[in-house]
## 1
Amino acid sequence: MGKVTGFMEYERVEEGYEPAPTRLKHYKEFVIGLKEEDARVQGARCMDCGIPFCNSGCPVNNIIPDFNDLVYRNEWRSAIEVLHSTNNFPEFTGRICPAPCEAACTLNFNDEPVGIKSLERAIIDRAWAEGWVDAQPPKFKTGKKVAVVGSGPAGLAAAQQLARVGHDVTVFEKNDRIGGLLRYGIPDFKMEKSHIDRRIKQMEAEGVQFRTGVLVGKLPEGSKVTNWAKETISAEQLAQEFDAVLLAGGAEQPRDLPAPGRELAGVHFAMEFLPQQNKVNAGDKLKDQIRADGKHVIVIGGGDTGSDCVGTSNRHGAKSVTQFELMPMPPEQENKALTWPYWPYRLRTSSSHEEGCEREFAIATKEFIGENGKVTGIRTARVEWKDGKMVEVPGSEQVLKADLVLLAMGFVSPVASVLDAFGVDKDARGNARASTDFLGGYQTSVAKVFAAGDVRRGQSLVVWAIREGRQAARSIDEFLMGTSELPR
Ligand SMILES: Cc1cc2nc3c(=O)[nH]c(=O)nc-3n(C[C@H](O)[C@H](O)[C@H](O)COP(=O)(O)OP(=O)(O)OC[C@H]3O[C@@H](n4cnc5c(N)ncnc54)[C@H](O)[C@@H]3O)c2cc1C
Ligand code: SF4
């Protein structure tokens, strides 16, 4: 906890934001982190609430009351040690985590939770600035070789943990840069990529080898999944060369909308659109970038990916941006007595929405309309739910203008052919089947093949991927050595 009476004395301090008109002119981060004094006030607000629900609300179980207290006491170096003891990459989560910990904070009863996420960011940003984040190479080598397939947060967290206990870890990534969706999904304005590059250097110094442009297994013909691989390695080859393999390839199969006119030019998956802008930001030259300039853009899908398409389209200079959500508009305020300390179902307005976006709820897409092979509009209908079933509202059809349509309705599963190449069992949703049990967790049905992150749990969050990567690393270490000192 922080100061005993802090929660009564101080109000929640929010991070600052560059105003929308200026931040729309660039792709850089625009959230302004807490100043040291504000962070200390924030830490002081943590109360002695007895059971720290925040700690179990956080998927990596960050020891939140302890670091709140340490910041309040100006003991920043100890604060980063506490933070790193549960989270390999707090600069990622301190920027892009939706912060379920704050929903679980006791002060959230008054809608004024401790700004835990902003403190997390303040601690790690200061630690990097002060030079407190060192490489931790292992004291001895085990001689065991581990292959990690996929370099998203799950693969990176696992690779770092495994290298630190002395295994020879190689990370295989089909794309041209390391980072998974951190690199090629999440826009730079939410998280700049220098944060990943810095960690790659640290991990290389700890002994991790990175191999980009290498596809493990195969993708189906015509797959729209990002793939800039220049070489392929078979699942058998990997299994032969390594003592253990961790599948951490994410859940990349996008959900399609097979309405009439889907084949028209100008209708794209979000993950065809977003990675291109991140590549351009990284200095790559693209021949045919999908651009929103001067266009009426419709984003289908009301989640995070959709919101990122909104922010990117506005930065391109779209004429209008509209986002569709099939479900009705959620309530603006949750009923705390029913939801706390869990993640509440309520309307969420992102910074991208605030930059300019019409949001349409309870709306279905019936047809993509086009001229000369190009999309020009969408025929829609209003829907409502009766007895749990979606029904169209009679007479509600209308046509909305659209020159660019972005499909952001989430991801169905991992790409099946990659799992099939390894022959691992799948669950009913097509994810790699593996339990999270304390003993033998994360093991698939195939000997020495493990799975963690979105490939195992389905489309989720960065913080869950980090948790699974850490836990899978412990399980692999136990499998290789008979015992493990890695935390779970
Ligand atoms: C647009 C977008 C925005 C998001 N925003 C947020 C957010 O703000 N906050 C948040 O917490 N979460 C967000 N998420 C979700 C989050 O990014 C994912 O849950 C998380 O990245 C999953 O991590 P992962 O390591 O399991 O897989 P991924 O990050 O998907 O990484 C998997 C990697 O494996 C590689 N790979 C796959 N198959 C192979 C193969 N056969 N051979 C070689 N390499 C392979 C892929 O190329 C990819 O790089 C967002 C997702 C998207 C799409
Ligand atoms: S990782 Fe997410 S849930 Fe955990 S403390 Fe940080 S912001 Fe909260």
## 2
Amino acid sequence: MLTSTIAPAPAATAAAPAPVRPSYRPFAVSVAGIRRLSDTFTRVTFTGPDLHDFGTVGLDQRVKVILPLPEVGISPLPDDESWYQAWRLLPDTHRNPIRTYTVRAVRPAAREIDIDFVAHGEAGPASRWVTHAAIGDELTIVGPNALGENPHSGVEWRPGDARSVLLAGDETAAPAICAILAALPRDARGCAFIEVPHEADAMDTAAPDGVQVTWLARAKAAGQHGTALEAAVRDWTTRSVSMAETGPALPVGRLADVDIEHDILWEVPEETHRGADLYAWLAGEAGVIKTLRRFLVSETGIDRRQVAFMGYWRAGHAEAN
Ligand SMILES: Cc1cc2nc3c(=O)[nH]c(=O)nc-3n(C[C@H](O)[C@H](O)[C@H](O)COP(=O)(O)OP(=O)(O)OC[C@H]3O[C@@H](n4cnc5c(N)ncnc54)[C@H](O)[C@@H]3O)c2cc1C
């Protein structure tokens, strides 16, 4: 045991506690590059004076994009964790819309990050913004602080030591799936299904050889949103996953309903249990993900502690803040 003869410092001279460094904080940015990758995807490169401090974990790292308002621009917010409270207190006319996106790439040395936006018309402020975006446009991105206490906040990908992976999602999940595929260990095994509007939306991925990537074009399948994805996941699961391998940890039928008209579908394991055969990650339109959740958990019996289900958006509903 260590002992010390040094008397404790009197309280009056005790050092002030170090300021808490926020894990997630606003970064002022402007548009440095715009690449229309396809009719669906636009890659926007942002630059900002503090982006060398942006967290670099990657994977499905989510950020909040604070979008400009006409006549107002971006209302000033504190650059620490009190930003959200300050945003809520803004008058309606000055409260900027906030939407959730994935960091597609981070280059701290160049003070740049990329986000791949899906353009889906003029219906939402984010889609409208990216459709008309121009070099020099300013906005704010709330994201991970490399100097913060927990620079990993906002990442849901937690495969543990699962022996294989299943990734499935629509175009809004494509940036996250591509970033995850690029980061997988080179001996990883499994598959990814990505449903996009058109064949030309398919992108190169840096997936390991053992992970098969399938892009599903909605236009080609002539189906509704999610039809091709559901069929592909059902087919793969039926062929690849047996009940004996997964074993239902929760009795089939115990799956609580999620009312996606009012609640967000967001069910992610804190930690995947060890020795799992499969870890599955599913994100996209909430109704589609809810159907796949029912199939994987209730019908197939896959342990919920091995699956992340995330409703990234809900048809007919604007993102709630
Ligand atoms: C963790 C997370 C990560 C995400 N990452 C990305 C990403 O990297 N890239 C990306 O493009 N999106 C991503 N999304 C989805 C994105 O946040 C939503 O699509 C968001 O609703 C878009 O905002 P908006 O202002 O364009 O539309 P909103 O104002 O939210 O909605 C307006 C209308 O448009 C509809 N709508 C919203 N999104 C779509 C869509 N994609 N296609 C068709 N109709 C739509 C809504 O149902 C609503 O009727 C992510 C979401 C989450 C939760």
